[in-house]
Design brief:
Layout: H1 2-33, E1 36-38, H2 54-68, E2 72-73, E3 82-85, E4 88-89, E5 92-93, E6 96-102, H3 106-109, E7 114-123, E8 131-138, E9 150-166, E10 176-177, H4 178-181, E11 187-195, E12 200-207, E13 212-213
Parallel strand pairs: 2-13
Antiparallel strand pairs: 1-12, 3-6, 3-10, 4-5, 6-7, 7-8, 8-9, 9-11, 11-12
Length: 214
């Protein structure tokens, strides 16, 4: 009887431990995967009325994050690159990322399995000091993995677009070149500063590339 009582106590304690671990992991992953934003003024009141809607900003951030999650990379394939370049300083960054990613429904749509994707800024001609956030996509990877294909405007009234890369999350780098590193970063921090409602606000999220890393 004593042995049975001890076993029951051990089982109950184990369930409590599991519940605590699950709760902690849930909090951690919610923080990692949720896009969050800071509505505090970044530098000054924006003189441009209107700006981008919050919904459009969140959709653009999710577009970048989810596409990076489909990164496809192979060390021996020269055309499969993952290159991030920084441009600008401080709160005025104009970074660029070029990489290969899988088509989510390539079999159903009869399209190539891997595509070229780029994210970068282009000036807004009608609104000085602000940019459009562009997604470039080519339906197949060719000899020119940084050009060609079609450009789509994800977001307007962007002041800054910044990407940072890390192997572990402890140290962050402003640039990444898979031709030199031979590997993908494990974490990417995405930050945009956008004019929204006469205020410049900052939105941030984390992306996890390399699900299809080989």
């Amino acid at each position: 009887m004593k042995i049975e009582r001890l076993n029951l106590q051990r089982k109950g304690f184990t369930l409590i431990e599991i519940s605590i671990v699950v709760m902690i992991l849930g909090v951690i992953f919610t923080g990692l995967f949720s896009t969050y934003y800071t509505s505090l003024r970044i530098s000054r009141e924006s003189s441009s009325p209107g700006g981008a809607a919050k919904r459009d900003i969140l959709l653009a951030m999710e577009n970048i994050r989810s596409t990076i999650a489909m990164t496809y990379f192979h060390q021996t394939q020269r055309r499969l690159i993952f290159i991030g370049r920084n441009d600008g300083r401080g709160l005025d960054r104009r970074d660029r990322l070029d990489f290969a990613a899988t088509h989510p429904n390539s079999e159903e749509t009869s399209m190539p399995e891997v595509r070229e994707v780029s994210f970068y800024l282009k000036p807004m001609l009608d609104v000085p000091d602000y940019y459009q956030l562009i997604r470039r996509e080519d339906e197949m990877v060719d000899r020119y993995p940084k050009s060609g294909g079609t450009e789509y405007t994800l977001l307007t009234h962007v002041k800054s677009f910044q990407l940072k890369y890390s192997r572990t999350g402890a140290k962050w780098e402003d640039e990444w070149d898979s031709k030199l590193t031979k590997v993908l970063p494990r974490l990417i921090r995405i930050e945009v500063i956008v004019n929204s409602g006469k205020k410049e606000v900052r939105y941030e999220t984390l992306a996890f590339p390399g699900i299809l890393f080989k």
